[in-house]
Amino acid sequence: MTILNRVSVWLAIAGAMLAAWVVLTAGKNQPMPTPLVEPPRSPYETTVAATGIIEAANENVRIGPPMAGLVTNVFVTVGDRVREGDPLLQLDDRDLRAQLVARQAAIPPAEAQVEEQKYRIGDLDTQLKRLKSVRDSRAVSEDDVKRTWYASEMAKRALNRYEATLKQVIAQRDETQMLLDRLTVRAPRAATILQVNVRAGEFALTTGATEPLMLLGDIQQLQVRAEVDEVNAPLVAPNRPGIAYLKGNTAQAIPLTFVRIEPYIVPKKSLTGDNSERVDTRVLQIIYRFERPAFPIYAGQQVDVFIERAPDGPPAPAPGSARSAEEPTK
Amino acid sequence: MNYIALRMLFGDRAKYLMLLCGLTFAVMLIVQQGSIFWGLMIWSQSSISNLNVPIWVTDPGIAQVDEVKPIADTTVDRVRSIPGVEWAVPLYKGLLRARLENGEYHQITLTGLDAATLIGRPAEVLEGRFEDLRQPDAVALDQWAVERMGGPTVITVGTVFELNDKLARVVAIAKTQKTFTNIPVVYTTYERALRYVPRERRTLSYVLAKAKDSAPVDEVIQRIRDHTGLGAFTADAFGWKTIGWVLKNTGIGINFGTTILLGFVVGMAIAGQTFYLFTVENLRQFGALKAMGASTATLARMILLQAFTVGVTGYGVGIGLATVFGLLTAQEGQLPFLETWPLLLLVFVALLMICTLSALISIIKLARLEPAIVFR
């Protein structure tokens, strides 16, 4: 065959084969690399997904100072169990203690004044008795008797006044004492110290602080606060079971038991863990209880929550329909 | 007859080579330009293919992948709530400036992957461990970032640089496909990405999802659209959307289209002219054949055989040369070059058209041929 004697034909065959090889080997899609951990998956056929945070069962207490002031002493450390009334921290009280010294010093003079007045009354009373016992009107004038009687009565009124002053001085001392007591912040209930954000020497603010001085909570019993986007709120039915996965641990699911739906929709707070969250939507909060699992779990941890929808629950709303359904009827 | 036709074709070496060169050149030009064009288009949607996840959810008005329209954080949960969705994870994507130790600034694309699963991570890691992204301040780069930011002497595993005044430490270098804009890609976790970027009210760029194996992807996508009012696309559809955007908003399509058209026209001109000359020179021989009683149809078949033989040979050599060009220049993905079989098929059809057209001119000439020409 003439055709096979040509170099160009062989070149053409080689070129076509090379091109075919390149086309066939290149451009093959690699499969997606397997995720490091399995992503959270819903175990239910129809579900409402939510983001949740683990918290102490009877809500955490964010301790705040009664007034702005310097912190001089912190009595507890993180993890301490405290009973109701245990001191947590001490604010600077030197000005009040100075005042207390002055107020305390004001009590003895007032007391002395009362004592003094009592003797004066005794003196006047004795005088009056003696004057009255003299029958001779020439020896003791009516006028003298009257005068002494008035003097005695006035001394008694003065005693009343001095006693009132004494009470006032004591009350003033008690006031300072109470104000002093107020500067010692005490645990409002038995709890565990979860966070201490203040050290001795720092200034405690009453307003504008981004984090509480201390965070108290009962970590014996934990609960999950699941947040559902307000758009999905109509899909949530009470008493449906749920399941939670700790972030990064989808192998072990935590079964949840329904407790309640918070009746007020709040601006979304959790997800980034940032302490001043950016509000972009509002969320419905649902509280779930769970048994402490075998693996460690901490208050404040984020979880992915899946809630089973009601069997014949409301269908997922078409866009816009959720709004029109909620239109007020007049 | 076929034998005679081929002998005629190969007999005139100079003409044959001229024909071959013309066709080879045309094929090579079209294949090479087409491959570069397609390579560029693939690059323009690298941001999608590099992440390699099936479903993308974002604002319905999205035009292309690099144009981020942030959505509310809770969208992840809303997508998870759609029946038929197996999983959904957040993705942050945005531009940021990196400041290197030597004081240089580089524009980068920050990509925040879901911290737990790292879904969307590159399949191939050149250095370090991608899992180390969970360490504090850790980021991973792609190999183009290393190249753009000063090479392996400046950037390597362990290098620290600043992102928006915050520390970033390189823990891995991954192999990805180059992108159209070639902005270095910095991978980190979603939460850390939010820490790096300036405050915005909405931060989530995309929700990446996968449909359950039991549910048809199209149905799930339609359901996501209906229930959330957001835009949901398969990776393919999103890629095509991005390519469409690039074609519409840049001159690339017209540029390459013109070149390809020129290749076609020039190839056709050379082939047609040479082939016509070839036929004219051999008119006497054809006349003799006609005089011997060969019909016009037989002659036409001969011409077509000659045309297709030289055409197919030129095609083979042409695509071979284009492939060699591709292999030499586009090593390691430095240049956009992607040969695909639809392109090769298209070029083949175009070539057959060139051959048929140029043969047709000659056939018309032959049909009017008087056998008496032999005796002139």
Automatic annotation (TrEMBL), chain A:
Lineage top rank: taxon: Bacteria
A cellular component term, taken from the record's GO annotations: efflux pump complex
Entry annotated with the keyword Transport: no
Ranges in coiled-coil conformation: 152-179
Keywords: Coiled coil
Family matches, as PANTHER family: HLYD FAMILY OF SECRETION PROTEINS, MULTIDRUG RESISTANCE PROTEIN MDTA
Protein name: Putative Membrane-fusion protein
The species this protein was found in: Nitrospira defluvii
TrEMBL record, chain B:
Keyword Cell membrane: yes
Keyword list, A-Z: Cell membrane, Membrane, Transmembrane, Transmembrane helix, Transport
Entries under Pfam families matching the protein: FtsX, MacB_PCD
Record-annotated MacB-like periplasmic core domain positions: 19-226
Location of the ABC3 transporter permease C-terminal domain: 260-371
Protein's cellular compartments: Cell membrane
Chief place where the protein resides: membrane
InterPro entries: ABC-4/HrtB_transporter (IPR051125), ABC3_permease_C (IPR003838), MacB_PCD (IPR025857)
Name this protein carries in UniProt: Putative ABC-type transport system, permease component
Organism: Nitrospira defluvii
